[in-house]
Design a protein that fits this description.
Protein name: Iron-sulfur cluster assembly scaffold protein for SUF system, SufE2
Family: Belongs to the NifU family.
Oligomer: single chain
CATH architecture: Alpha-Beta Complex
Shape: globular
Pfam family, one: NifU_N
Strand content: 15-25%
Low-confidence stretches: 155-167
Distance between the termini: 48 Å
Radius of gyration: 15 Å
Number of helices: 4
Number of strands: 4
Largest sheet: 4 strands, mixed
CATH class: Alpha Beta
CATH topology: Sufe protein. Chain: A
Mean pLDDT: 84
GO molecular function: iron ion binding; iron-sulfur cluster binding
Structural class: alpha+beta
Order of helices and strands: HEEEHHHE
InterPro entries: NIF_FeS_clus_asmbl_NifU_N
Helix content: 40-55%
């Protein structure tokens, strides 16, 4: 019975973030910008970041279309990384990735609400949905010119894939 209540709580957090996403919209003064697509399901996410002079995420916004999991994950991710230095945010991408697809135990405290997405690993078709915003963050922070226009979720690493080219 207690597990069922916990599952319902997690579901409610995900639904709340999907229906009322935080940091949804556009930034007119973004320093980093990327559009990332998940071709397997059609989710599209545009992520815009405004970095300050101290390499800290001053503001962040996302837009696009996608399923409940991808929209909730983007909302949770923006909450978690706002105010973090670029390296801290990129480290959080690694923690989230390990949480969703890894087999090691990770400290999820840094992820905030996003930790509830751990259950997605039970549904392999949804893993890419949950990872979309986090991969976009990684690629946007890693892009040399900070404007990675369009990329595919299937690209393994920004160093291996020129995210400035359309694919």
């Amino acid at each position: 019975m207690a597990l069922s209540k916990l599952d319902n709580l997690y579901r409610q957090v995900i639904l709340d973030h999907s229906e009322h996403p935080h940091h949804h919209g556009h930034l007119s003064d973004a320093t980093n910008d990327i559009e990332l697509r998940n071709p397997t399901c059609g989710d599209v996410l545009q992520l815009q970041i405004q970095m300050d002079d101290d390499d800290r995420i001053k503001d962040i916004a996302f837009s696009g279309s996608g399923c409940t999991i991808s929209q909730a994950s983007a909302s949770m991710m923006t909450d978690a990384v706002l105010g973090k230095k670029a390296q801290e945010a990129d480290d959080m991408v690694e923690v989230f990735s390990e949480l969703i697809v890894g087999d090691k135990s990770v400290d999820t405290d840094v992820l905030g609400d996003a930790a509830v997405l751990e259950g997605v690993k039970q549904f392999p078709a949804r893993i890419k949905c949950a990872m979309l915003a986090w991969k976009a963050l990684h690629k946007a922070l890693a892009a040399d010119d900070h404007v990675a226009k369009v990329a595919s979720l299937h690209a393994r690493d920004p160093k291996e894939d020129n995210v400035n080219d359309r694919d």
